[in-house]
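Page 37, continued from 36.
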């Protein structure tokens, strides 16, 4: 597996319907002055100034080695409220001079949460979404601090929005993208997809009236054991630097970390997200921003080794966030079937190929 990353900031977890309510918004292109609080590190060079019609320019001339220096209050004290265990999303539109880690601090001076996300350099404005799932406090009169000490040069911030993901609506008009694959496992009578447990690990993969039942009877200490192919080989394609979202509806027997592997056997990315235990089905959204590869014939592996007991997966959906919702037909399946065939170099081959091949994760000789 060429690339592994744990994406805390952009892996959205939402229980129930994904209504989102806009609770705070600032547009620096229409502002006439910036009087917000800001602070640089001791001896650190830099400045914060408003560029009329363009945005808020935060210039880092020297670095302290601390992500949070400088910090700039882009949404002032007293603007919005948050609740403990609530789910929030911060959407920033900005240009970044270099690749680096953006850190967002949300809350009050007495109590707050911080989240970081990797951001690429860009000559154009890009939209960065930072998730705050299961917020730690109930707070009134919150602010938002933009902390970009990892970016040497001038970061230009155009807009900042805060959404309550458990809100009553006002979705902000953001596109849900194009559905690349969708499957509802409710009522399946058999599961034939590839799966694998760790050496000596107890467990099973079967069916439940509500979906696929993945039982972990003993743990290996590895998040990715067991792994279950809930979307088979050959189901969808992805592009390098594309932005994708996996939507899983499932019940989890305990709180833990869910890991999703997306790609092919030759190249893939993994993302993890913390999930609470629930007696009811919950919707978990897992983001794959700036995907590392251009790949054809992808699969999806559900890796739930951190959950002791039976996890029931009701449905799965793969969404291209950059896609046209009306431009791509979703690939739908009622049951998982045998996937595409690949040689040992990871190249897709057909039934006429002779030699050792891989299908659904299993090697065999095709004659």
């Amino acid at each position: 597996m060429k690339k592994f990353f744990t994406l805390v900031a952009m892996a959205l977890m939402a229980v129930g319907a994904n209504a989102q309510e806009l609770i705070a918004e600032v547009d620096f292109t229409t502002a006439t002055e910036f009087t917000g609080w800001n602070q640089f590190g001791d001896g650190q060079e830099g400045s914060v100034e408003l560029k009329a019609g363009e945005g808020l320019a935060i210039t880092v001339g020297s670095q302290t080695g601390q992500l949070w220096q400088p910090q700039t209050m882009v949404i002032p004290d007293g603007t919005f409220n948050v609740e403990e265990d609530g789910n929030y999303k911060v959407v920033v539109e900005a240009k970044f001079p270099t690749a680096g880690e953006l850190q967002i601090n949300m809350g009050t001076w007495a109590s707050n949460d911080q989240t970081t996300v990797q951001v690429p350099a860009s000559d154009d404005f890009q939209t960065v979404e930072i998730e705050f799932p299961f917020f730690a406090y109930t707070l009134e009169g919150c602010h938002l601090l933009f902390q970009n000490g990892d970016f040497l040069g001038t970061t230009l911030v155009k807009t900042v929005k805060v959404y309550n993901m458990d809100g009553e609506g006002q979705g902000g008009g953001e596109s849900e993208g194009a559905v690349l694959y969708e499957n509802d496992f409710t009522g399946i009578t058999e599961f034939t997809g590839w799966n694998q447990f760790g050496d000596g690990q107890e467990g099973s993969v079967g069916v439940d009236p509500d979906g696929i039942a993945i039982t972990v009877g003993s743990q290996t200490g590895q998040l990715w054991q067991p792994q279950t192919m809930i979307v088979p080989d050959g189901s969808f394609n992805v592009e390098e630097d594309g932005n994708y979202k996996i939507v899983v509806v499932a019940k989890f027997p305990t709180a833990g970390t869910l890991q999703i592997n997306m790609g092919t056997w030759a190249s893939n990315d993994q993302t993890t997200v913390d999930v609470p235990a629930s007696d009811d089905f919950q919707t978990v959204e897992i983001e794959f921003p700036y995907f590392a590869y251009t790949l054809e014939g992808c699969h999806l592996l559900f890796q739930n080794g951190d959950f002791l007991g039976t996890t029931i997966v009701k449905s799965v959906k793969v969404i291209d966030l950059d896609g046209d919702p009306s431009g791509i037909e979703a690939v739908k399946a009622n049951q998982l079937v045998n996937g595409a065939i690949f040689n040992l170099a990871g190249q897709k081959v057909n039934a006429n190929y002779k030699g050792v091949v891989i299908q659904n994760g299993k090697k065999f000789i095709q004659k």
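The chain is about 0% helix and 50% strand. Flag for discussion at group meeting. The first strand starts at residue 13 and ends at 14.
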